[in-house]
Inverse folding.
């Protein structure tokens, strides 16, 4: 499992000031700004159709539901077989934005990174299989799954959690953080998911 939390100063978006890789350090740092992070047992041998029903994964899903009182969940995927999803995920997430409901995710395969900006705190959390994060409602953030390289296309399978099935659409709607200027250009200087993974390998 690869995990990492990169802490930045808004004056230098290209270079992280600190890199955390220990689970408890990441949990503690994110908790200090109101975010919930943890790692959970998941099955890594099942095919996609059985991903949600395998015992380790289904138990972890139930634990997350009970912890945050979330009544509904679904599976979202990107990859070569779901190439139409690349554009939609980029459109929705490649900008500094917020939602009216918490964003709760558990990665089962592949990975990506969430950038979070509270005004006083700025970090990017890298998540892969077994990592879970909950970003509170109305918290500025963005998501990056990496560059679309035909030779090594990005892919992930992630469980998305919702309070109920009726609020999925409204909970997903991104609200751009226009008070920072251009919410798309604002995130451009930050390292991408691919670059952050390389940083972790060099930092290990």
């Amino acid at each position: 499992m690869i995990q990492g939390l990169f802490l930045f100063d808004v004056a230098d978006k290209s270079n992280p000031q600190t890199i955390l890789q220990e689970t408890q350090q990441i949990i503690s740092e994110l908790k200090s700004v109101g975010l919930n992070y943890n790692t959970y047992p998941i099955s890594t041998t099942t095919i996609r159709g059985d991903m949600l029903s395998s015992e380790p994964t289904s138990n972890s899903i139930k634990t997350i539901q009970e912890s945050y009182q979330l009544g509904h969940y679904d599976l979202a995927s990107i990859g070569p077989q779901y190439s139409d999803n690349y554009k939609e995920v980029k459109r929705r997430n490649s900008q500094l934005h917020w939602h009216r409901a918490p964003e709760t995710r558990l990665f089962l395969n592949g990975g990506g990174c969430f950038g979070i900006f509270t005004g006083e705190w700025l970090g990017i959390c890298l998540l892969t299989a077994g990592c879970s994060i909950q970003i509170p409602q109305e918290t500025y953030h963005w998501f990056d799954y990496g560059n679309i390289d035909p030779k090594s296309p990005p892919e992930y399978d992630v469980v998305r959690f919702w309070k109920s099935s009726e609020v999925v659409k409204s909970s997903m709607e991104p609200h751009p953080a226009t008070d920072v200027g251009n919410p798309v250009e604002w995130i451009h200087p930050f390292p991408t998911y691919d670059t952050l993974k390389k940083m972790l390998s060099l930092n290990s």
Notes: Residues 125 and 152 are 22 Å apart (CA to CA). The chain has a mean pLDDT of 93. The chain has five helices and eleven strands.
